[in-house]
Specification:
The structure holds 2 protein chains of 2 kinds. By secondary structure, chain A is mainly beta. Chain A has strands at residues 3-7, 10-12, 18-25, 34-39, 45-51, 58-60, 68-73, 78-83, 92-99, 105-107, 111-115. The chains are: A mainly beta, B mainly beta.
Chain lengths: 117, 107
């Protein structure tokens, strides 16, 4: 059974850093591109970052480029999101997810990041 | 990146009504579009893939159509569990952008 379990969320002050993790199980993690998607309170879905299956390609949303860094450890089946210089606008639930040719489409339950002074 | 525009932003409807949601892409994405339904406090759940194919478990009252730049999701008769937010997402190219969502609320 596929499982994606995000962790690392919490309350953090503006300008500080946080690292999210997503532990994957039940599938061949090293074969899939992985995504971080966030959702601010009461707002829509926003893709944040993605990494290719081997980590060689990475893309970032303009709103986080230069501040966030996505990485993966295929030996540990874990995806990461290093978030630096956090702002109030980064407050959101962060989901890790992956999808491919149907029927592959899986999301974690999300972890809440609250940036507050 | 490809921009997806969903309309309307909000719909207020009764149980049993028919509803059509729209998603327009800023450039051609062939049929590489999916629809999600998201209920409060939950992750999105896949409804339709490749624009018109129902995912396993998606009730037959849901149907997707379109290709190129214009897509629709139709719910033939709204059930109570359908009052939620619906998102389209394109998978034609990276990054995999989302539409802004359409909220279907009970009237």
């Amino acid at each position: 059974q596929v499982q994606l379990a995000e962790s690392g969320g919490g309350v953090v002050r503006p300008g500080r850093s946080l690292r999210l993790s997503c532990a994957a199980s039940g599938f061949s993690f090293r074969e899939y591109a992985m995504y971080w998607v966030r959702q601010a309170p009461g707002k829509g879905l926003e893709w944040v970052a993605l990494t290719s299956y081997d980590g060689s390609q990475k893309y970032y949303a303009g709103s986080v480029k230069g501040r966030f860094s996505i990485s993966r450890d295929n030996s540990k089946n874990t995806l990461y999101l290093q978030m630096n210089s956090l702002t109030f606008e980064d407050t959101a639930v962060y989901f890790c997810a992956f999808w491919s040719v149907y029927p592959i489409d899986h999301w974690g339950h999300g972890t809440l990041v609250t940036v507050s002074s | 990146e490809i921009v997806l525009t969903q309309s309307p932003a909000t719909l207020s409807l009764f149980v049993g009504e028919r509803v059509t949601l729209s998603c327009r892409a800023s450039q051609n994405i062939d049929s590489h579009l999916v629809w999600y339904r998201q209920k409060p406090g939950q992750a999105p759940s896949l409804l339709v893939y490749d624009a018109s194919n129902r995912a396993t478990g998606t009730p037959a009252r849901f149907s997707g159509s379109g290709s190129g730049t214009d897509f629709t999701l139709t719910i033939s008769r709204l059930e109570p569990e359908d009052f939620a937010v619906y998102y389209c997402q394109q998978r034609f190219t990276w990054p995999p952008t989302f539409g802004g969502g359409t909220k279907v609320e009970i009237k």
